[in-house]
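Now produce a polypeptide, keeping tokens residue-aligned:
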Amino acid sequence: MLWSGSSPSTVKRGNMWGLLMFTGAAWLAISWSVLRLEPLDIAAVAGPIVLFGAVGEMLRAFAGTRTWWLNAFLTVLFAVTAGLLIWDNQDSTYTTPAALIGWYLMVRGAVDVAVGIMTRGADRTWSLLVTVGVLQTGLGFYSSSSFARTGPMVIVVLGALGTLRAVADLVTALRLREVAGPRKDVLELPPERAAGVSGYTAGLTDFEGAPSRSRARHRARPSATAATATATGSESFHDQVVRTTADLDAMLAQAGITGPRAGAMVESPKDMPTVPDTPEGVESGAERPAGKAGPARPGG
């Protein structure tokens, strides 16, 4: 449930729900205290009670809602009403206090009803706000009539006012706390995603901490010994050719590319050049024109 001009998507301030929780508790204390007063004290407490309601509207206007102007208007209206009650506290009758209290209740209840209907698609507690608004409007209508011009009835009206405003503010505070969610610096994952992230982190840690010999190695990749021998220069060129050819054959076999069938006649090409045994022989053979390749000289 939200106050006038507010919605769950626009009011998510971290301290606003705590402020409303405080005002709700204060309204409960006011309601309990008013019911213990004597009729002669009504004129002295009615003004400060309405003034407290005006202060609450002012704080809501500072919350930064899109309809802050409505709360600002209610602040001025209720402040003027409280001023009239405080100025007319010497009246020996209960007509003026009852009428001004009824005015406050009717305006506040009508605004709650309008806001509740306006936010029915965005707030699941809109019906409670409408109910509280209807009760406030009916109570204000009764207080403005001639039936509530006695001391005990005005006291009951003030007590009911505090109770209704306490319910409205407390439910609003809890609703704002619910829609606010966690802080920006806290990331809460669903249980399924949290379990997946934990499993992935554990597997990555185990893989990084495992010894190197347990890791999978592709056949075409040279082993640690061959890589070390190549780096130190202890492997001959012939060994490199043989190893590279073997790795290439293994990769072709994995790809499903096989050689000729067993027993098939394979015609050997004529004028086959001699396989060079040194890198210099490979370079000299590449420099000869195509079709004139001959035996490679050992010395290049």
Notes: The CA atoms of residues 128 and 170 lie 12 Å apart. The radius of gyration is 44 Å. The chain has a mean pLDDT of 76. The first helix runs from residue 16 to 34.
